């Protein structure tokens, strides 16, 4: 059921965003896995068995991304996930990534209390996917409301799905619009 064509990992090293240089660059990365969509071109009522089959892939992708960001789970502050379904598929096929992608990152990072934000869409080959990102322990940490654009030039083909994960080692450079700061996380409920 899982036929991978390619895995692409990208990492940005953000040194500043128009303000003074940061003391340490923020690393922001994404992994994209392109695979055949076994449901392309037809409506299939029972698609959830694929969610279980994707769980090992979630772990592989999360591990590759963590390694690309230095390998230390304690340095990861924020995360997100998304999927881009080729034109012969359905939006719901992308939703199959919710459990395998999200839980793989949460397990790998240890304490990760916040829901993993997500984006799913259907699009043509070369389309971009804006993966939302927020703090891994408290969704209301405003400095970490961010995103990363994922695109693979030759994917997804009409009969493929691109599944993506994203992680960062910090929030937006020069964040200064208030709200809950990461140092203010107190409820440990995934929100505040």
From TrEMBL:
<dbReference type="InterPro" id="IPR035936">
    <property type="entry name" value="BB2672"/>
</dbReference>
<dbReference type="Pfam" id="PF06684">
    <property type="entry name" value="AA_synth"/>
</dbReference>
<dbReference type="InterPro" id="IPR009569">
    <property type="entry name" value="AA_synth_put"/>
</dbReference>
<protein>
    <recommendedName>
        <fullName>Amino acid synthesis family protein</fullName>
    </recommendedName>
</protein>
